Amino acid sequence: MKCFFLCLLFVLPSVVCFAQEEDYQNWGQAYGFDPKDVRYVYVDTANIRTAPRSDAPLQDKLWQGCEVTILNTGKLFTMAGKSAPWCEVSYMKTGATQKGWLWSGVLSPRILRKDDVLFLYGMRFSAANDTPTRVHVKAIRHDSVIAHTSFEINSSQTARGSHDASVSGPKRLAGLSCLLYFTYSGEACAVPTIEQYIAWDGSSLIVLPQIYSEVDAGVYAIEQKYTFPADRGGKPAELRMREVIEQYDEGDKPVSRKIKTTRYRWDSATKKLRKI
Predict the structure, then answer these.
(1) Which of 6, 122, 171, 242 could lock onto 230 through a cystine, CB 3.0 to 4.6 A?
(2) 3-class state of residue 203 by DSSP
């Protein structure tokens, strides 16, 4: 059977301030921190402690956008029901290199940058499995938040699965500086894989419509995929979403296949998509 695993995107602006005590986790990727990895503090303030324990003496505080280098990773620590490892880090403060321990759930999982803007993101998990998980994204220039937005992941299994993020060019969407790309995968049957594109025009974060893909082996496969103007077959000022739904019989043979295309017109003046 053909398995499709690909994409998703969404929209939601919100002004929220986050402290270290809030419910954040470096969902899955925290466990991959290695010595010499560089990360940035996402939350408003992060506590640096003398040892990898929440009751260890407070040594220092770092602010959002502060750069740290991972030296060592310690044991997992659960905060508000979520787990991530302690990390020993080094950082610069008052012109000198300092060392200490912080909980890695306060760090942005990936380094996303365009020119002098740093894009940081963190996730707020919900205690209820049927409640969407929200990802908050900040654009920071010279240690100040200049834009922010958020989007939802409706599947808790997807939210807690593997993930990656990157920065790409604007794919010929006029008026944009770059696109931020996020992908999350539950890596199990009937658990959606999502992709999220967020456009950056130099001052605003614009969340594009959401797409997803999902497979239940031997039953169905759903794939949604974007074609940007810069892609093969793309058209100027147009974003197309192609959805393919396949149904399979008990012998894993396709019994039906439906294809639907949704077209959006990109308005470079208003930075909005309009369904055609």
Answers:
(1) 171
(2) coil
CATH number for the domain that contains residue 41: 2.30.30.40
The Cα-based distances of 83 to 16, 29, 30, 53, 242 in angstroms read: 22, 11, 9, 13, 37
Domain end, chosen from 77, 108, 139, is at 108
Domain extent at residue 55: 29-108
* CB count in 10 Å sphere of residue 249: 11
pLDDT of residue 81: 57
Q: CA 226 to CA 177: how far, in whole Å?
A: 19
Q: What is the pLDDT of residue 29?
A: 46
In a domain, 96, yes or no: yes
Q: Residue 239: how many CB atoms within 10 A of its CB? A: 23
Average pLDDT over residues 81-97: 88
pTM for the whole structure: 0.85
Question: Helix (H, G, I), strand (E, B), or coil: what is residue 104?
Answer: helix
Query: CB within 8 A of 208, min separation 6: which ones?
Result: 9, 10, 11, 196, 197, 198, 199, 239, 273
pLDDT at residue 31, rounded to an integer: 52
Closest CA to 149 of 119, 104, 192: 119
Spatial CB neighbours of 173, under 8 Å, sequence gap ≥ 6: 179, 199, 228, 229, 237, 239, 266, 268
Span 189-231, pLDDT tens digits = 889 999 999 999 999 999 999 999 999 988 999 999 999 999 9
State yes or no: pLDDT of 11 exceeds 50: no
